[in-house]
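Team,

Forwarding the record for the chain on the shared tracking sheet. I've put the sequence and predicted structure together so nobody has to dig through attachments.
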Amino acid sequence: MNAKMLEEQIELKIKEGRSFQEIYDALNAAYPGREIDIAKLVSELPSLAQRQRFALPHRALIVAQGLLILTQLFNAVMIGQQSGVWALIFAAIPAIVYILFLNGIFHWKPMYFKSAGYLSFFLLTVSGERYPEGIVSQYIWLDMALYAAVGFLGVLPGHRLGGKYKSASQQYTDGKGQIRARHTIRFEA
């Protein structure tokens, strides 16, 4: 079973309201030998309770990011009209990246939350330097406010979503009386 199919099963079990440990135990029993892969996939998706807790910031992030994409595309067109097609393409790159991140954010992938947030903080620091000489966004304050909003709404929830787990080696006695070690993974509550 590939990672995409496992992720779909994890998503279904999350929607059923199961805990991270229950999901991990069920999938580990069904697909032995893939403990680490399963643990990583389970830890990458937020639980139902986390989704309910962060529903408002999630929606606000989608709206802020959508507005940011629109302003970036508007600025790219303005830059392209004054500086040419290559400047337009270069100026549109962040908007294209944000569009790709938006799909992951819509599907509750914390990696995309954090990536959009960190990119926003980076672009916030260089927002005045991105434009060619003589061309400054008429709405630079709006760009900066949206960068800050996407930054905070991406980074703060992004680090709190998903499950945290610890892996350890546990000793046990097999049927022949020999002491063996096995890898165990426990998710925090």
